[in-house]
Structures are given as C-alpha cells and as structure tokens.
C-alpha cells in the first residue's frame, strides 16, 4: 500500500504529549528540570551577543566578489532595502529573527541524513538569514544558459543511446564512454515519452573573482535540495515581509505545480488525470524529507519499491482498495537499485520488471534511466563541445576549465600541481572523493596521485576558484562566506527554470566546500523581478 504522503515524516509534536501522559509526577519533574537546565545553558551561551546591534559598518568584502556589496562597500541595487532594514534593526533583533527561523525549520522537520555519522542520522540543515540576491539582467543570462545546456544534454543522451554520432565524429572520445560506470548498455534503443530524458535537473553554478558565472557540474540523476528552497522562502517572507514586498522578489512557490505539470506531460495523451507517484528508497535515504514534502505538495502518493508491482505488463500500486495502475513515476532511486532484473540483482529497493514496462511505453519515469551518463564529471568537460555540435551555438554559461586525467598531457600537469588544484572523482557527490589542493596535506596529495595513476579515467582536476561570498551571521557580526548556486530546471512541455534556486554556503571560515554533508548550510535566493508585474504573485502571498 502507498505510504500516506500527507503524514508528517517527523510527527514529534503529536508524540510528546502521549509520552508525558504515561510518566509519573517525579519523572515529569526530572524532564522539566533537564529541559530548563539545557535552556539556561543555551541562554548563557548566547547572552554575550544577543544584545549586539548587527549592521554592515565593519563588514569587509576583502578580495572576493561579494554578492551583496560592491568593493567600495556600497550595497548592490537589489540589496539596498535589505541592508537599510538590517542596519535599522534594534540590538538583538536580527538574532531573534534568525532563531525564530531556526525554530520554524526544526518544527517543519527539515532534515538530511549524513551516511556514516556516528552522532545520529538526522540533522537540521543550517540556514543563514542574509539572502543571496540576483539582479534581473543577470538572471536572464543564467536562465538562457541553463535552457541551452539542458537542450544539448538531452540531445547528447539520446544520441549516446542510439546512433552515437558525437562519438563517431570523435568529439567525445569513445574510450571515455566505454569506461563510464554510469553508462547503461541496457538503455540502448530506449525511447522515453515525448523524447525527453532529463525532466528535472539541478545545475551547480559558481561565480569567480572575475565576476563571471561558471557551471561547476550537472546533476541529472536525482538532484535534491529544492524542498529547502521552498521552505527557506517561507520563513524568510515571515522575517522580512515589507522588504519582500518593496524589493519585488520573484516567487518560487509554484515549483510543486510546475513539477506536477512536467510529470503529467509524460503520461499518454488519452489519460486525463494520470496517476503519479514519487518513488523513494525509504526513510533512511538522506533526502527522504524532500521526497515526502514534494509528494505532499503535489498531492500524489509517496511509495517505496514494495508498494509497486508489475502485473500484466503494467505497473500497479497496492492500495487498500486493490491495485491501481500507475502512469508516471518520479523516481528518487538511482539506476543501480531501480529494477533488480535490469540492474543490480541484489536491490531490495526497486521494482522487478519496471524497465521492461518502461521500454514498452506503458509507464513513464522521470528522470529516464541512463541519464547519469551526462553528469559524469569527466563527460562534463565536453558539454561546451556538445552545445556547439548539437545546437550550433556558443555556450552561454562556460564550464570551469577542466583537466581530464585520462589525457596524458592533462594528467602530467595535474600530478605536478596537485597542491593548486581541486581534484574530483567522476561519480562521487556530496563533497566526497575530492581533494582541495591548497587545503590538503602532502600525505593526501600522495594518496590522490596514486589514485589518479591507477585509474586516470575516474578523475578530473580544476583550478581552485575564488568563490563569491555573501555576508553571513557569525555571533555578533557579519563575515563573508563562500557560496554556490543550484538552480532547478524542469523540462516538460517547455523548459522552465525556477527563479533562483538553492544557495549553499560554506559555514566554516575559509572553506570552499558547501555541501551539507561537509558542514555547509543554505540561504534564501532572491531574484529581483524585471518589473512590478513579474513580482505581483509574490506580493499577494505575503
């Protein structure tokens, strides 16, 4: 039976009263005493800066590109009202708003899991109250570049699983394709519904000290993080309602409806109301909160593999009323675990026979199986060439310059400059399998040199970029912290880009690693509207 997607994954507020009703008076007194003591310690910890007046008078942009301020200390146009508001707040007010946001996020149960963490699996995703602000002209450039990129990537995936013309033309080396662990031979000849392979994409962008926006990597398998975007916006609107209204910030709240439209577009045309499900690996997955949240927001069922069955050539969902046919699956399970008959035979998370039903066009999936070939970090280096080959256009958004260790000259350079470069494994994520040269030890560099020599196909290297920064609260003052940006692209009837996206911030001073699993947090991302008309939906919601 499908998991009730409308049930909160962390129903703490309902559980606590029932537990307290079962304990005696003395036990309850102990509980309250412990809580009071913990609160007192927390109060004492914060008392030194709770009355501080946060303002930007002493804030230093240093030698980095700052997203909120010009080098001369003046706020950029889209951030002037915010800066004025923060500077005008009474002592302690900004801390109170930050803490109110943290309490709200805790009540919402906005968590992620860190695999292998000994202190516990669930963590609250840290949030900072100072947003990243993107000017309208800049967003237009980013949006156009993302649309161009997803069109080329979709054409590449289709080509790779059919005629492989780009390989025959020697634009993408055959050896790189044959050694790619994310390439799925079983997907050769697949024809996804409406010809679309990548329906939901998260593209990571960074800004260097030269002010230019670069694509850092593409995430085309099961990109996560959009739930944080929506919840961050909700709590920020409550914290700065008047600034929102006056600044004309573009809305993000229509993402669930846009996602639903994208998924519904994949269903056969004769089906008026398709049955759509979100397929999750289960509660122990790091992004389970997001799976549950999106299912709830779209009004569809959240299911696990055991809730689905292939029967008479179709996919059905087990319900209390019997079997219900499924038309579209938004899968948040990697290819390896999707179907034990087609991929990993030991998978207990997928649906046996699912790929065969998909191949026959009797169920749609987003994203299509096999899309992981396009977010291989080695294949990433060739995306600009894909854009030129398939679209006959120059890339709007450039790649970060990349050394492919499979190439002898590139490998030689990388091995000689490990202390200056960022080295990444082809299919790792979350900040794992990575060497940040300037912050590494000689022992770590030797270890990566050996890995590169043993398996050069698995590694790329890039120069260490001076990532842009955004002011971030640190006790009683602001400090610059490095950020990246993950916009979300939906490809259905047309291509739509969520205005803004997830701004991830490296909370550790000097760190360039923004991943939540490595101590990163998030910020709200404000895209300033081109006109009052473009922002009117947001103003209505406040």
UniProtKB/TrEMBL annotation:
Species annotation: Planctomicrobium piriforme
Gene3D superfamilies xref list: 3.30.1490.270, 3.40.50.11290
Name the record gives this protein: Uncharacterized conserved protein, circularly permuted ATPgrasp superfamily
Highest taxon in the source lineage: Bacteria
Pfam families reported in the protein's UniProt record: CP_ATPgrasp_2
Domain Circularly permuted ATP-grasp type: 131-506
Annotated SUPFAM superfamilies: Glutathione synthetase ATP-binding domain-like (SSF56059)
């Amino acid at each position: 039976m499908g998991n009730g997607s409308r049930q909160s994954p962390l129903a703490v507020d309902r559980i606590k009263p029932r537990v307290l009703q079962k304990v005696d008076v003395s036990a309850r007194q102990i509980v309250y005493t412990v809580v009071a003591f913990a609160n007192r310690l927390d109060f004492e910890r914060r008392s030194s800066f709770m009355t501080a007046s946060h303002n930007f008078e002493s804030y230093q942009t240093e030698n980095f590109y700052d997203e909120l301020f010009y080098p001369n200390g003046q706020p950029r146009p889209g951030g002037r009202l915010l800066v004025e508001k923060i500077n005008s707040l009474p002592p302690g007010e900004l801390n109170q708003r930050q803490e109110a946001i943290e309490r709200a996020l805790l009540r919402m149960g906005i968590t992620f899991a860190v695999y292998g963490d000994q202190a516990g699996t669930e963590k609250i995703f840290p949030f900072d109250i100072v947003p990243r602000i993107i000017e309208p002209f800049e967003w237009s450039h980013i949006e156009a570049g993302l649309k161009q990129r997803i069109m080329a990537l979709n054409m590449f995936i289709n080509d790779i699983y059919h005629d492989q013309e780009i390989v025959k033309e020697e634009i993408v080396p055959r050896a790189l394709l044959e050694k790619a662990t994310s390439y799925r031979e079983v997907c050769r000849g697949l024809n996804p519904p409406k010809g679309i392979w990548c329906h939901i994409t998260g593209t990571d962008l960074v800004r260097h000290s030269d002010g230019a926006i670069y694509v850092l990597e593409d995430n085309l398998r099961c990109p996560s993080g959009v739930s944080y975007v929506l919840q961050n916006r909700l709590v920020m609107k409550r914290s700065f309602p008047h600034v929102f209204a006056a600044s004309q910030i573009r809305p993000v709240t229509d993402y669930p409806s846009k996602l639903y439209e994208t998924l519904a577009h994949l269903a056969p045309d004769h089906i008026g109301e398709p049955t759509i499900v979100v397929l999750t690996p289960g509660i122990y997955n790091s992004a389970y909160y997001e799976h549950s949240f999106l299912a709830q927001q779209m009004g569809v069922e959240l299911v696990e593999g055991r809730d689905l069955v292939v029967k008479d050539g179709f996919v059905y969902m087990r319900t209390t009323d019997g079997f219900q046919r499924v038309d579209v699956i938004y899968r948040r399970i990697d290819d390896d675990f999707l179907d034990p008959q087609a991929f990993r035979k030991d998978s207990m998370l997928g649906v046996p026979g699912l790929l065969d039903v998909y191949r026959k066009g009797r169920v749609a999936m987003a994203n299509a199986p096999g899309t992981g070939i396009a977010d291989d970090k080695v294949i990433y280096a060739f995306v600009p060439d894909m854009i030129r080959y398939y679209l006959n256009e120059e890339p709007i958004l450039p790649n970060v310059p990349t050394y492919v260790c499979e190439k002898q000259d590139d490998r030689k350079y990388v091995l000689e400059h490990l202390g200056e470069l960022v080295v990444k494994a082809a299919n790792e994520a979350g900040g794992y399998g990575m060497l940040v040269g300037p912050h590494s030890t000689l022992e770590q560099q030797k270890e990566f040199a050996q890995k590169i020599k043993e398996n050069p196909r698995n590694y790329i290297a890039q120069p260490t970029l001076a990532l842009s920064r955004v002011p971030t609260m640190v006790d009683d003052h602001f400090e610059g912290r490095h950020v990246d940006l993950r916009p979300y692209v939906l490809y259905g009837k047309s291509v739509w880009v969520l205005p803004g996206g997830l701004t991830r911030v490296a909370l550790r001073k000097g760190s360039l690693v923004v991943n939540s699993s490595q101590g990163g947090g998030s910020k709200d991302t404000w895209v300033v509207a081109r006109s009052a008309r473009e922002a009117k939906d947001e103003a209505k919601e406040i």
